[in-house]
Write a structure and sequence with these properties.
Layout lengths: L20 E5 L3 H7 L4 H22 L3 E8 L7 H24 L3 E5 L7 H14 L6 E8 L1 H17 L10 H5 L12 E4 L18 E4 L9 H12 L13
Parallel strand pairs: 1-2, 1-5, 2-4, 3-4, 5-6
Helix pairs in contact: 1-2, 2-3, 3-4
The protein binds farnesyl diphosphate.
The site of farnesyl diphosphate has 18 residues, from helix 1, helix 2 and helix 3.
Amino acid sequence: MAWFRKKTELQALDTERLPRHVAVIMDGNGRWAKRRMQPRALGHRAGVEAMRAIIRESSDLGIEALSFYAFSTENWSRPAGEVGALMGLLVEFFGREIDELHANRVCIRILGDVDGMPKPQRGLLIEAMERTRKNTGLKLNLAINYGSRAEIIHAVRALAARVEKGELEPTGIDETTFVETLYTAGLPEVDLLIRTSGELRLSNFLLYQCAYAELVFTDILWPDFNVAAYHGALAAYQGRERRFGGRSPSL
Ligand code: FPP
């Protein structure tokens, strides 16, 4: 079934100048729940609903790639109950959404150490990637058990192993070979990074890939980040002048 959404009043966007790759740090679920005197798990659940809306809108807009920071390698240190709730939400998400995502040609990729995930989640993540691998619509990337420094070390080791085997000369390691060894191989670099809840940090998310990303920070807590807020972030992006280290033609 095709996605259908009632168009509400949204900020006008130049469809020719949309970012190719949007990355999102979904922050503020805990505070959202606390304000309602609810357990943190409820905030994460509401966060998944916000994700669904942003996935649909990105797909409708024709954005090429969308990456969410869903679970960092540091998140294992949260209380067991909260980790358990997040693992449960992962199972629920894939169980509930996979058919619809697949029907809408969404291609799912997991960024992170899938092998280090508990068995039930690992199986679902691998199945979702395999099932949607050939889909030509939105590239939906979920960073799970992910840390950018670990990703970079992982890539360096993989390249060192190729050098050791004689497959690659050390001088053959350049930005192209390096980028193709990251979890994000084949994806465009991040154009727009959004972080919610007023925190002004990258928190070890896609550090290499965000080298020239435009950063949009908003005070909105993630569960309240809706399609209108998304359009606001995209409009802010379109208002920026991207120079990639060059000079502005107007200066
Ligand atoms: C940050 O909010 C959010 C997280 C650590 C987890 C985000 C995960 C989801 C929205 C759902 C899981 C994903 C899938 C694919 C089912 P926080 O808890 O740090 O908020 P706080 O800063 O207000 O405490």
